């Protein structure tokens, strides 16, 4: 693999994300040769750490994937730490000095990746300071990677974007949605656009409904404070769920070029129906909160959660796509904490054949609509439900499912989302990062729902921990004569 030179400056280097995801991903890229000699990492945060201590922390974060000590020592020797107050200009002077020294030492040629793994209220000031203190180089690339949440609603997201735009242009900003780094999310376009049997049927003539489930078994863990101010709608739907919808809905892009793909996703997001009045929202979006059950405490008893909270830990909704291809096809989505299983999958349910020739009475199985299942995680792969004839005499049906599920080893060896995304950012490939216009359009959609819910504080339903959500989520589909497809 060809090496790409870069200086990474990680703001929030002492944090959990850096430890769990960034250092191991950088290590994997190092082992694969994408970064080798011409790279350095400056970790920065408020805490007073030394380079030595920082290197120990980095070494600890990769201990499960280290094969030999030499490789580890070589890798961590590229890491430097500088304690930093993001509001203090003097610190950026120091940061610049260190950047230049490392650039020379490792022959980096001006390439910079600034990674903001910290709270978004600091994004603006960091951007401004990087610019005013001339940390942005003119002899290499300069890329800014930022983590969610990108705003709290459309207004705050717009403000944030305007702040960043003072120092970085849209094509230098890489907004992470880690779902876009997942193998099977990237596979959606592959299977859609390279198979005639799907592409030809991928529309409202042949597809009856689509169901997207992102269920988690964990509760809010130690993130009560963040989560209680956020809720499942902002935490999961605004980003991951709507990104999945966009990939399913978009028109074929002109090419796989990042801007071609993202232009189609922007159009897709623009075609989502905005629920304009409160009743439409309440009819089409259900929110829930887990209560005690299956030996788990209820949400309001979790640490750092307001005991009176009516923040939702579950959302189910019906999304309509008002364009030529999709008019009339409901996209049902659901996501929540403390559900019965950790599972992410998409079911695409096709329409029934227009006339069933096969027996429907006095038989065990009847013809069923075809379903294409995209297993995102933990299973990764595809399944397709088909009808066949039961072996023997007669015309009785047998439903079968054809599976192509990655084996454990292939799954385990496939690059982790952050590894892929870091490599994409090194390569300057924005395809799997969200464009500002996608973020903008997603918030526009989410704000409608949020506003109606904020107005109707008590419109929230309990569900037992360890279940698949409140009864109202089932009612949502039952009204349209559908049911959540529970098999996976
Ligand atoms: C994050 C959310 O974006 O995604 C978390 O903030 C959630 O609340 C996580 O647990 C789920 O990601 P994954 O990859 O485990 O499905």
Automatic annotation (TrEMBL):
Enzyme category, top tier: oxidoreductase
Catalytic activity: D-glucose 6-phosphate + NADP(+) = 6-phospho-D-glucono-1,5-lactone + NADPH + H(+)
Listed InterPro entries: G6P_DH, G6P_DH_AS, G6P_DH_C, G6P_DH_NAD-bd, NAD(P)-bd_dom_sf
The Glucose-6-phosphate dehydrogenase NAD-binding domain, residue ranges: 10-187
Residues annotated to bind NADP(+): 46, 148
Origin: domain of life: Bacteria
Family annotation (PANTHER family): GLUCOSE-6-PHOSPHATE 1-DEHYDROGENASE (PTHR23429:SF0), GLUCOSE-6-PHOSPHATE 1-DEHYDROGENASE G6PD (PTHR23429)
Name of this protein: Glucose-6-phosphate 1-dehydrogenase
Species this chain originates from: Jeotgalibaca porci
């Amino acid at each position: 693999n060809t090496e790409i030179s870069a200086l990474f400056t990680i703001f929030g280097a002492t944090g959990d994300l850096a430890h769990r995801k960034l250092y191991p991903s950088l290590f994997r890229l190092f082992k694969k040769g994408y970064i080798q000699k011409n790279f350095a990492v400056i970790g920065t945060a408020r805490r007073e750490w030394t380079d030595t201590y920082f290197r120990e922390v980095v070494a600890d974060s990769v201990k499960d994937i280290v094969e030999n000590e030499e490789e580890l020592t070589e890798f961590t020797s590229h890491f430097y730490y500088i304690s930093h107050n993001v509001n203090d200009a003097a610190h950026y002077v120091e940061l610049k000095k260190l950047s230049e020294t490392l650039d020379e030492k490792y022959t980096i040629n001006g390439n910079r990746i600034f990674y903001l793994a910290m709270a978004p209220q600091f994004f603006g000031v960091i951007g401004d300071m990087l610019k005013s203190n001339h940390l942005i180089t003119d002899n290499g690339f300069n890329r800014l990677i930022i983590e969610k949440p990108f705003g709290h609603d459309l207004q705050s997201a717009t403000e944030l974007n305007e702040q960043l735009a003072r120092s970085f242009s849209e094509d230098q900003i890489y907004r992470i949605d880690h779902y876009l780094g997942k193998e099977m999310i990237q596979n959606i376009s592959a299977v859609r656009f390279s198979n005639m049997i799907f592409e030809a049927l991928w529309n409202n003539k042949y597809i009856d409904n689509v169901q997207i489930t992102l269920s988690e078994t964990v509760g809010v863990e130690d993130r009560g404070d963040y989560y209680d101010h956020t809720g499942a709608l902002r935490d999961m739907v605004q980003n991951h769920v709507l990104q999945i919808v966009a990939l399913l809905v978009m028109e074929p892009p002109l090419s796989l070029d990042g801007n071609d793909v993202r232009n189609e996703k922007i159009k897709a997001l623009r075609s989502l129906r905005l629920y304009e009045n409160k009743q439409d929202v309440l009819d089409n979006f259900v929110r829930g909160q887990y209560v005690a059950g299956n030996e788990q405490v209820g949400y309001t008893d979790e640490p750092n959660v307001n005991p009176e909270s009516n923040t939702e830990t579950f959302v189910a909704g019906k999304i309509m796509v008002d364009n030529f291809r999709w008019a009339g096809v409901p996209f049902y989505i659901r996501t929540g904490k403390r559900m019965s299983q950790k599972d992410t999958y998409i079911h695409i349910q096709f329409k029934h054949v227009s006339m069933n020739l096969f027996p429907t009475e006095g038989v065990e199985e009847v013809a069923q609509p075809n379903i294409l299942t995209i297993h995102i995680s933990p299973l990764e792969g595809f399944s397709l439900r088909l009808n066949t004839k039961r072996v023997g005499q007669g015309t009785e049906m047998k439903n079968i499912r054809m599976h192509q599920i990655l084996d454990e080893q292939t799954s385990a060896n496939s690059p982790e989302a952050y590894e892929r995304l870091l490599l994409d950012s090194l390569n300057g490939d924005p395809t799997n990062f969200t464009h500002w216009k996608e973020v903008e359009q997603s918030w526009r959609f989410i704000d409608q729902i949020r506003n109606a819910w904020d107005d109707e504080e008590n419109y929230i339903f309990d569900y037992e921990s360890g279940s698949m959500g409140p009864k109202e989520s089932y009612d949502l589909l039952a009204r349209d004569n559908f049911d959540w497809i529970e098999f996976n």
